[in-house]
Design brief:
With 305 residues, this protein is of the alpha/beta class. The protein contains 9 helices and 8 strands. It has helices spanning 30-43, 45-56, 74-82, 95-107, 147-156, 187-205, 216-222, 243-260, 266-275; strands spanning 64-68, 87-92, 114-118, 132-138, 158-167, 171-174, 226-237, 292-302.
Length: 305
């Protein structure tokens, strides 16, 4: 097996908030995003831990777990913790992110049962030595053009009775009140709209892109799998937030300003500048009302015996 590596939520389509398989044609610079991806995944850890506990009710003693689109390996290491008898494989198209995954596994003392595979999904999973009991894909599927075909390929890598867990959808994160006390109220809603447009362009530009109704249970069924449940998990970090959450919000808003600057009006750009100015009392660096509230949704299905 190759020992290299792979990634997860900021806004869907470029993640810092959500895993990721990096499909051909997705031009995101994942190495540059690495620190933000790690910070987000660490912050979302409690929600992911609850999702894994839910999966553990169906997957009791997995021998092999695969994180397809693992990024820097935060969730893959959570899986190793949640399932101490399992071997965990982090698979990703970005070798730089897999280096971080291996380093994290070493720090956590699980390197002896942690492997990586570098390469484009889903073809890279052909390197697996044996079928997976649990295959997790967290916001990686939408970086691949033909999602229906990829689900079928993922299903083919499962052992009989094995589980595929797909994290897609959920709700956009909220970090700030609707009315900030300056600028036009509703800034985050407008950032969400800009991100939806950017996400649609990203999907359309992927090689072999196929438009699909995002009915994940139906898509899983079309892949020959039996849908066994869908559940959402809440992340709620109320104000006043710890320093790491505040730093993440600042980094995520910086990313949003950079990628959406051309479609935002002058007032919203000025509002973002104030929010990101450490010297401004109204900035996310200093204001007391910063919070983190989000929901992630996981769809699970099994390969029939």
């Amino acid at each position: 097996m190759a020992h290299e590596h792979q990634t997860h939520h900021i806004h869907q389509g470029d993640h810092a908030h959500h895993g990721h398989s990096h499909g051909h044609g997705d031009a995101t610079d994942w190495a540059a995003m690495a620190a933000l991806l790690e910070a987000e995944a660490e912050l979302y850890g409690p929600a992911y831990a609850r999702a894994l506990a839910w999966l553990g009710k169906e997957v009791t003693e997995p021998g092999l777990i695969v994180d397809a689109g693992s990024g820097p390996g935060v969730i893959a290491c959570l899986m190793a913790e949640a399932f101490p008898g399992a071997r965990v494989v982090a698979a990703d198209g970005a070798a730089e992110l897999l280096e971080r995954a291996r380093a994290r596994a070493a720090r956590q003392g699980i390197a002896d049962r942690f492997d990586t595979i570098a390469g484009e999904l889903p073809d890279s999973l052909k390197e697996l030595d044996y079928p997976a009991d649990l295959l997790w894909a967290s916001r990686s599927l939408h970086h691949l053009g033909d999602q229906r075909a990829v689900l079928a390929a993922f299903g083919a890598r499962l052992a009989a009775g094995g589980t595929l867990a797909v994290l897609e959808g959920g709700l956009p994160s909220r970090w700030l009140p609707r009315d900030l006390g300056f600028g036009r109220p509703g800034l985050q809603a407008r950032l969400d709209a800009a991100q939806e447009d950017r996400f649609a362009r990203m999907r359309a530009d992927l090689p072999g892109a196929v438009a699909e109704t995002e009915d994940w249970p139906a898509l899983l069924g079309a892949a020959g799998l039996k849908h066994t449940g869908t559940r959402s998990f809440l992340l709620d970090v109320p104000a006043p937030v710890p320093d790491r959450a505040r730093a993440f919000v600042a980094a995520a808003l910086t990313r949003a300003r950079d990628v959406h600057a051309e479609v935002l009006d002058a007032e919203d750009r000025a509002t973002l500048d104030r929010l990101l100015d450490p010297a401004d009392p109204g900035s996310v660096h200093r204001r007391p009302d910063v919070f983190v509230l989000a929901a992630v949704t996981v769809h699970r299905a099994v390969r029939p015996v």
